[in-house]
Specification:
Blueprint: E1 4-5, E2 10-11, H1 15-29, E3 34-38, H2 59-62, H3 65-71, E4 81-84, H4 91-104, E5 110-113, H5 118-121, H6 124-132, E6 135-138, H7 143-150, H8 154-165, E7 169-173, H9 175-178, E8 181-187, E9 200-203, E10 208-214, H10 223-232, E11 237-241, E12 245-250, E13 254-259, E14 263-267, E15 273-274, E16 287-288, E17 291-295, E18 300-302, E19 307-309
Parallel strand pairs: 3-7, 4-5, 4-6, 6-7, 8-10, 10-11
Antiparallel strand pairs: 1-2, 3-12, 8-9, 11-14, 12-13, 13-18, 14-17, 15-16, 18-19
Helix pairs in contact: 6-8
């Protein structure tokens, strides 16, 4: 194998060897963990509040999202669950509701961690609890609390290590889903989203690259936020999650839609033009040739080759 040109002193690899090394590097980077991101139900991060009481919101169970989190874990109902309620404004109530919900699924080894500051996110006790968990769930609320409290801490580091190297399940609903990616939307009204500067983006927890996630998507009309995010960074895929809807992400790139609603994908890689850099702050933004996909339960999108396979359920004839 020639790797050096003696005259020019330039290192090079023959294409066959270069392809092999790229493939080997990619294989090494495939995470062993599984990621489940859910569009949420209400702001507090609970799927059981007065207007969304547990009996009235059984879609969350009937469509199998919580059950799917369990069955994907290495010990099924015997797995150790940790519910992180940091993002929520009602952490005690949300934690109790998750414990009740999982008890109905015969899952009883469930703990709740309401980490409220970076000191707690660096504590040895909390670190050991996350280290021992097979399932970690981030509830909804304010995703900026997740990034600012956990970013760069011992718990953040062990979460990333477990996701890369262990068959852990990491799930997030609402804010927990929004914070799962490397890039994170944390502010921006739905109505004015396509005005320059309205949508605010910062770093998330970084379990998955090259995507940005928005939640409560259909119900709150957030298509503008995702269009703006994709126009400002066309190399990332915008993911809009409807409520009671999610994506099950395996191998770091295979995304299966789960739940009762829709997932909207906004792909800006082939965007032809935008005036984003030309207009003043607060002015409307134009976008040309943005690609949008709609996914429902069972559809699969591959982040590696950007292919979408639509699930066609068999129709059972009546009579």
């Amino acid at each position: 194998m020639n790797i050096i040109d003696k005259k020019s002193r330039v290192f090079y690899l023959k294409p066959i060897y270069l392809g092999f090394l790229i493939q080997l590097y990619t294989q090494r980077m495939v995470p062993k963990g599984k990621l489940i991101i859910i569009g949420g139900a209400i702001n507090t991060g609970s799927f059981a509040e007065t207007q969304f009481g547990l009996p009235e919101n059984m879609n969350f169970f009937e469509r199998g999202i919580l059950k799917r989190i369990t069955t994907e874990s290495i010990k099924d109902t015997q797995s150790r669950f940790e519910i992180i309620t940091t993002a929520s404004l009602m952490p005690e109530k949300v934690g109790e509701e998750y414990i009740k919900a999982y008890a109905q699924l015969d899952v009883h080894n469930v703990g709740v961690l309401n980490i409220t500051n970076r000191e707690e996110a660096n504590s040895d006790e909390n670190y050991e609890r996350i280290k021992a968990a097979e399932v970690i769930i981030f509830t909804g609320g304010d995703q900026l609390r997740l990034s600012s409290i956990f970013g760069g801490t011992k718990i953040h580091q062990i979460l990333l290590e477990k996701y890369r190297n262990e068959p852990v399940v990491i799930a997030g609903t609402s804010a927990g889903a929004a914070a799962s990616s490397k890039n994170m939307i944390y502010q921006g009204s739905s109505k004015d989203a396509l005005l320059k500067g309205e949508v605010k983006i910062t770093g998330g927890l970084g379990f998955i690259d090259d995507v940005i996630v928005d939640t409560h998507f259909v119900q709150r009309g957030r298509i503008g936020r995702l269009l703006y995010a994709a126009a400002s960074n066309p190399g990332i895929l915008g993911i809009g999650l409807g409520e009671d809807t999610g994506l099950f992400i395996s191998d770091g790139h295979t995304m299966e839609a789960i739940g009762s609603g829709m997932v909207i994908l906004v792909d800006g890689r082939n965007m032809a033009d935008t005036n984003l850099t030309d207009v003043e702050m607060g002015q409307p933004v134009s976008i040309k040739n943005m690609v949008v996909h709609v996914m429902c339960d069972g559809d699969v999108y591959d982040l590696n080759d950007h292919s979408l396979v639509i699930h066609h359920p068999k129709v059972i004839p009546i009579g």
